[in-house]
Amino acid sequence: MAIITMGGLSGGGARALGPLVAEKISADYVDRLILADIARHVGATVEALHQREERPPTRGERFTRILQRILERSAVTGAGGDPYFGPGISTYLTEEYEDLPQPTITRGHELEDEKYFEAVTTVMKDVAARDSVVFVGRGGHIILKDFPGVLRVGVVARIEDRIQTIMARERLTAEEAQKTIEARDLARNIYFKSHFGIASPDDPELYHLTINTSDVSLEYAAELVVASAHALQDDRLQPKVGVPA
């Protein structure tokens, strides 16, 4: 079983690299967009999932079931009034960093923010405990830092390449893409500072390895990540005590 977390700035390449890695190791791939799709459909598909006992579930269906149980549990414990998932959880999991609640001076909002963070932590740990998975974003490399067998990968790129990525992916002008990146970078920094006490979320010391997708092709980067995941599983990745670096 392989568990890989990828972190990086918006447009840095993690969202493109993640699916390639997941495909190579036959793992689930989880990012904001996947969670958004599941959050929109999970209530409508509960009955359908119960009717599929005649065949083994796909990886996507297994993940949906896991998330469904987490969301139902959270609704029961007061995370929200929706019968399937509370608004706090679905919002926290599926929106961009700049759309997440930012720290305020009111204790009530701080408590609500903690529920959001608890939700994403619960989902990541629950999913990671069950199957091979590739996580992108949401501080997975911090949340799962002490989780057994988790490979932490940082993904970076030069600003001009990040702008081009956002322009193509979200159909924005260069100016709009740059403003979007600046807003997301700022919100991401606030997120990491607020929940982890980390001022530099891309510090190389937080990862096993960091890949620059401006200089390394996605295909080769995926091969490197997969090889590193296998090395971690075989206890070949970590430096040995007493061995010169």
Describe this structure as you would to a colleague.
The chain is an alpha/beta fold. The protein has a single domain (3-232), classed as Rossmann fold (3-Layer(aba) Sandwich). It is 54% helix and 10% strand. It has nine helices and five strands; from the N terminus they run βαβααααβαβααβα. It has helices at residues 14-24, 32-50, 59-76, 87-94, 107-128, 140-143, 159-170, 174-196, 218-233; strands at residues 3-8, 28-30, 133-136, 150-156, 209-212. A five-stranded parallel sheet has the order 2-3-1-4-5, sandwiched between helices. The longest helix has 23 residues, at 174-196. Mean pLDDT is 75; it is low at 42-56, 75-90 and 104-111.
